[in-house]
Amino acid sequence: MLVSGCPCFAQSTSLRGVKVAITVDDLPTHGDPFPGIDRDAISRQILAALADNHAKGVYGFTNQAWDASEVAIFKEWLSAGYPLGNHTYSHANLNRVGASTFTADIARQDRVLASLASFSPLIARRRIFRYPFLDEGDTLARRNDVRGYLFGKGYRVAEVTIDYLDWSWTDAYTRCRINNDQKSIQWLRTHVNEAADRYLSRSVEMARKLFHRDVDQILLVHIGAFDALTLDGILREWRSKGVQLISLEEALTDPIYRINPNLAYDGGLTFLEQIGEARKIDTRPFAETTYTLESLSRVCRQPTEPR
Ligand SMILES: [Zn+2]
After folding, report:
1. FRET label pair with 40: which of 15, 165, 226, 286, CA 20 to 30 Å apart?
2. Ligand 1 center to residue 61 CA distance, Å?
3. Containing domain of residue 30, as a range?
4. Is the pTM of this model over 0.90?
5. Which CATH number is 243's domain given?
6. How buried is 73 (Cβ within 10 angstroms: 0-12 exposed, 13-18 middle, 19+ buried)?
7. pLDDT at 2
8. What is the whole-number distance in angstroms between the Cα of residue 167 and the centre of ligand 1?
């Protein structure tokens, strides 16, 4: 179990007037299966959380759909008024597969989305791209090849500035479900809001350091089982603190998203981290120290399992 760290950092950051665009990755399915999982119910709960919090213009970033029930999830999003973007067909990692395989994978997913054009006019807005694993190239040649392809096809890149590691909370939740560890599930449910707050505050502070103003932030979450349980509460709390939810397309008009950090890296970075690294600014003071990947990976982990 984690020990809750000092909450002073999160509480000292004013969130009033901060604008956040929500994006949801890995449609139609995310995370490992577990007994009783219902992918469509997860999707519907997330859509309800978005609607209940009056979130407009939320993009769902898509990969392949295996069958009609998974295509139905795409259609539910479109019917709810939410556009779909491209996240590659096979959730490829550019740094592992190389630029030509990667761009072919983008084109393949584009054909999947284009096949829904007669279902919804929102498909015309599909050319926004989210890099899987937030990896944009571990060499500048690879990075520039893919950017050249994307911009040549009229894509914009949906960068991420807030990532509270929701997927690793879903992983922990799945392990706790399998172990039937209700106490730990309760712990996860009561602490995720604090974690999301801390990561948002960290991004707001980092933007103020880099740009001396509040930027339009872009939140990454996934279509995961734990998101379905907790996204509504997180958004409600943020709104109660003065956060304003905006569409992704509005956020992308912030001039910061025209910056090319021109950075080769591996291992996934948010856009603010890329800019900080490119400018050689020490962003370590903004690093989260309590709700880390390492600490979350221990929740509901059997001691005999490799870590
Ligand atoms: Zn993804």
Report:
1. 165
2. 8
3. 8-296
4. yes
5. 3.20.20.370
6. buried
7. 47
8. 9
